[in-house]
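Why do we bother with holo predictions? Because pocket geometry can differ from the apo form. Keep that in mind while you read this record for flavin-adenine dinucleotide.
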Amino acid sequence: MEHFDLIVVGAGPSGASAAFHAAEGGLKTAILEKEFLPRYKICGGGLVYRGRKMLPFDISEAVEREFDTVDIYFTGTDIHMQPKRDKPIISMVMRDVFDQKLVSEAEKRGVQVIQGQGITGIDFQENIIVETTEGKYSAKYVIAADGVFSPTAKLTGWDKETRRLIPALEYEVKVNDADFERLSKEVRFDVDFVKDGYAWSFPKNGHLSLGVGTLRKQKINLKEIYANYVKFLGIEEVLEEKAYGYQIPLSPRTDGLVRKNVILTGDAAGFADPLTAEGISNSIYSGRLAGEAVVEAHNSNQEVEPIYEHKLSEKLLPELKTVDFLQNLFINKQKIRMFFIKKTGNRYGEYMTDIFMGDKSYPKDLVKTLKKKIKDAVLPF
Ligand SMILES: Cc1cc2nc3c(=O)[nH]c(=O)nc-3n(C[C@H](O)[C@H](O)[C@H](O)COP(=O)(O)OP(=O)(O)OC[C@H]3O[C@@H](n4cnc5c(N)ncnc54)[C@H](O)[C@@H]3O)c2cc1C
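The structure, written out:
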């Protein structure tokens, strides 16, 4: 049985990033992926600059289009924000090509990629024995980067769902030349087209990735909303359409992120942004933290759990807490949000764009400040 210091289960952005940094730190690392790469992944493929600049290599070859302007519309109002930057705010990728690029960079650092084998069992002996559809491997550490349904987490004992999962639909759509020419000029978000959520139109090479998602668990007919969105965009004729449904986890697990040297990262941990549902950046980032934590634990012979938790607590977890608060305030309470947006004008869009660019992060003390402001406004004595 082949032995590794680390097996990373899943070849998405969190897995590729974790493996890359573990191999850079000198660990004998494998990625175990159930599909053969390149594989389709249900995703809008909107990579914000924050995520793009976290990558320590150039990914231009995997980018289909770049937009230094983003069009944000608020349905039912005439508010249209159009932030602009001198670098691509959002890059359009297809995840088969993008993920393969990230994995190939990890491979260059010495990571062994085992494809077409899904994890089916896990056994905790002196080392961790990972069983797959084809055989067995052993490792000292396992990083679960196998997405929202994470079989690795389930096999390890995370059997209670503590993340907030929300549904989203993604359509890969071919339209006629006139519609494509018109719609490929902008990357657009239509906030409130979906109740407590948004719709998007992301132009790729020769087709559009259209999608609808709600940021709150509720009974909702997303298929019908999507059909309305196609009409709303003025699409005359759908020439080809592939529909996909999936879940996005909008809050971290509350029952721990490490057990028995199995470390959760990306969607398996629940690290997508609760306000935008953007998950690629935090997957890349948390993958890096997980990979580096394993290197440190391995080299110092210390427990990996406190090392990973400390890294997460420095930035990612407090940020997610702040965004969760904003999500509650802005998504669930639409009136407060629109009041705030009308009052602050473009500053809101500009601030969010700075976050997308990675120039600002959600302020750590925002929850305290806002709570105080709200309290003072309600109780001015
Ligand atoms: C409809 C939709 C649209 C989205 N749009 C965007 C967007 O535009 N921008 C953005 O930033 N985020 C978006 N997201 C979120 C984003 O796709 C995820 O947050 C991100 O892919 C998570 O990355 P990950 O590496 O954690 O997991 P994943 O990318 O899900 O990768 C998991 C990998 O594990 C593999 N795997 C699964 N089971 C096994 C097994 N048993 N054994 C071995 N391997 C296994 C899978 O095949 C896969 O390759 C969207 C999500 C959805 C659902």
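The chain has a mean pLDDT of 93.
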